[in-house]
Design goal:
Elements (H helix, E strand, L loop, with lengths): L2 E6 L1 H4 L1 E4 L2 E4 L4 H9 L2 E4 L7 H10 L1 H6 L4 E5 L9 H6 L11 H16 L4 E5 L6 H8 L5 H7 L5 H21 L3 E2 L3 H4 L17 H17 L6
Parallel strand pairs: 1-4, 1-5, 5-6, 6-7
Antiparallel strand pairs: 2-3
């Protein structure tokens, strides 16, 4: 049975938000793909991970990447990189605020990570990002904070949350072209649905169990249509 390594954030880890708390789902898309493809996914994804934290984890596991029997390494980052410190925004809405990683830092760090993985002889494969529900996410980040202040910083444009998130998603597709590596589009399978938000948790950003099945079906279709083998 081939083993591939995977690095990313809570979405790749399989975290769902239910009843006001986070948990790792036993029906996450990595688990579903493991079973369907008869492979082992050594999942190194971490809740809250940015590309900067991911680079540290990849470098720490570079020998394991080199030794893995599978030829691919799965990467999924961006959702935390584009996020802001909403508490600081709530407390100081008239100040300037930067995301966890600027788009320039996101790009340059991702490229370094991709090059490090390529140096082991493995092929990095990028996942795009699921879309967010800006209204739900706004309600989630505003809990116990000043909604009015956050709205003020957003200039009353909650849609900005989704637009900003999409800038990082577009960058992922551009990285695929720049680094000449595959990018698997898991965004479109959500957007093709007339109400994709039914596939997201109540926090507006994590796929729910239905969303994970949607991603798994997309990945399995991609593997089949591209006749991918793992060793």
């Amino acid at each position: 049975m081939d083993t591939i390594l995977a690095f990313g954030d809570s979405i790749l880890k399989g975290v769902v938000y239910e009843n006001g708390s986070y948990r790792i789902s036993g029906a996450s898309f990595p688990k579903l793909c493991e079973k369907a493809l008869n492979i082992t996914i050594d999942n190194k994804a971490k809740f809250g991970s940015t590309i900067s934290k991911g680079e540290t984890i990849v470098n720490r596991n570079i020998q394991a990447i080199h030794s893995a029997s599978g030829k691919y390494v799965l990467l999924e980052f961006g959702g935390n990189d584009c996020d802001f410190n909403w508490k600081e925004i709530s407390d100081h809405p008239d100040r300037g605020h930067l995301p966890a990683n600027t788009i320039v830092n996101f790009r340059t760090t991702y490229i370094r990570m991709i090059r490090a993985i390529k140096s082991t002889g493995k092929m990095p494969v990028l996942l795009s990002l699921p879309p967010v529900d800006p209204s739900r996410y706004f309600e989630h980040i505003s809990r116990n904070r000043s909604k009015d202040n956050i709205r003020r910083w957003l200039q009353n444009d909650i849609q900005f949350i989704a637009n900003w998130h999409e800038i990082y998603n577009i960058e992922i597709f551009m990285l695929g072209q720049t680094c000449q590596i595959p990018v698997i589009d898991i965004t479109s399978v959500f957007l093709e649905r007339k109400n994709y938000t039914t596939c997201l948790c109540s926090d507006g950003i994590h796929p729910n169990v239905e969303g994970h099945k949607l991603i798994a079906d997309m990945l399995l279709s991609y593997v089949s249509s591209h006749r991918i083998t793992f060793s």
